[in-house]
Automatic annotation (TrEMBL), chains A, B:
<protein>
    <submittedName>
        <fullName>TetR family transcriptional regulator</fullName>
    </submittedName>
</protein>
<dbReference type="InterPro" id="IPR023772">
    <property type="entry name" value="DNA-bd_HTH_TetR-type_CS"/>
</dbReference>
<dbReference type="GO" id="GO:0003700">
    <property type="term" value="F:DNA-binding transcription factor activity"/>
</dbReference>
<feature type="DNA-binding region" description="H-T-H motif">
    <location>
        <begin position="29"/>
        <end position="48"/>
    </location>
</feature>
<dbReference type="InterPro" id="IPR050109">
    <property type="entry name" value="HTH-type_TetR-like_transc_reg"/>
</dbReference>
<dbReference type="InterPro" id="IPR041347">
    <property type="entry name" value="MftR_C"/>
</dbReference>
<keyword id="KW-0805">Transcription regulation</keyword>
<dbReference type="GO" id="GO:0000976">
    <property type="term" value="F:transcription cis-regulatory region binding"/>
</dbReference>
<dbReference type="InterPro" id="IPR001647">
    <property type="entry name" value="HTH_TetR"/>
</dbReference>
<dbReference type="Pfam" id="PF17754">
    <property type="entry name" value="TetR_C_14"/>
</dbReference>
<feature type="domain" description="HTH tetR-type">
    <location>
        <begin position="6"/>
        <end position="66"/>
    </location>
</feature>
<keyword id="KW-0238">DNA-binding</keyword>
<keyword id="KW-0804">Transcription</keyword>
<dbReference type="Pfam" id="PF00440">
    <property type="entry name" value="TetR_N"/>
</dbReference>
<dbReference type="InterPro" id="IPR009057">
    <property type="entry name" value="Homeodomain-like_sf"/>
</dbReference>
Amino acid sequence: MSRWEPNTVERLQDAAMTLFHERGYSDVTVADIAGRAGLTKRTFFNHFADKREVLFAGSNALEEQVERYILESEAELPAIDIAISALTSAGQTLSNYSEVARLRQDVIASSPELHERSLIKMASLSQVIAAALVARDRHSTEATLVADSAVTVFGTAYAEWVDSPASAFPDLMNKVLTDLKTAIGAASPAARLQQRE
Amino acid sequence: MSRWEPNTVERLQDAAMTLFHERGYSDVTVADIAGRAGLTKRTFFNHFADKREVLFAGSNALEEQVERYILESEAELPAIDIAISALTSAGQTLSNYSEVARLRQDVIASSPELHERSLIKMASLSQVIAAALVARDRHSTEATLVADSAVTVFGTAYAEWVDSPASAFPDLMNKVLTDLKTAIGAASPAARLQQRE
């Protein structure tokens, strides 16, 4: 293929983030990003399908890591524990990127099309988790419900970590999982009885 | 505005569904849909922003109904009960559309861009629920977790209802909520013990 270019992906990401921050996401072109990184548009498109993808470069690696973790996990653990551990483990590499994380979240929040792409990435992550749990002999309904819940916990914990990057990500995951259990399971006996009638 | 055209939205939806089923989603144009319904492209665009939206015509009404239900609900009920009741109530009108529902699900499953639009609609529904719960004095983290969980339950129950439309939608919602509580460990110890056997 093309000649060797060290850290191409990282250079493109850095250039994109700087430009998005300077000019706003919608006013930056792929040519601008490539130019700032000292690379060509062709090189950009060797690595990313479009301008949006440069903000989601890590998502495939994250999915692969989570999938591998689940496929190698202890089969007899509850599915929710497996899924949360997998996302916690994958998420711990985030701590290397705390400075970029807030900038990235700000850019995503500034653009409906980036917000949509972010939703799609999370849904894709959930599907990967559900499929891996099914491969570990979980029923598909349980796998789907666990996967969606684990991704909800991950998204909430990630947002909290971006706000306070000094917090340990595993602690945030545990806290949000407990919050979730409380939120959907802590109905008073009277209210639950009433609901069943 | 334009002259009165009875059931315009329904005619466009019926025409779209028939054509998508006959030719496949990607081979049908807005002009085809309008033509089949005996209407103009301009009329189509008076009602829908693009070809995808014709499949999601009810989503704004659903959001409004769910929002109103939550804002008018008894303040002291647990948030999860309020959210599930709101979606159950709104979802009950679905039973009038069981024939269309399967066709629609098949069309959505056939196209990545429709699948993405569907995800975005569900995320939007979750945001509406979370905002309405915050307006009812719930903390934003609880509101987000409850909203995401309730929409997960709704999506799963809806898929089960499409597969077996003879089932009562409220029963499916209750069943899936119980499944979710069991799956993430918010159910009673007895239920979890049973699940492991």
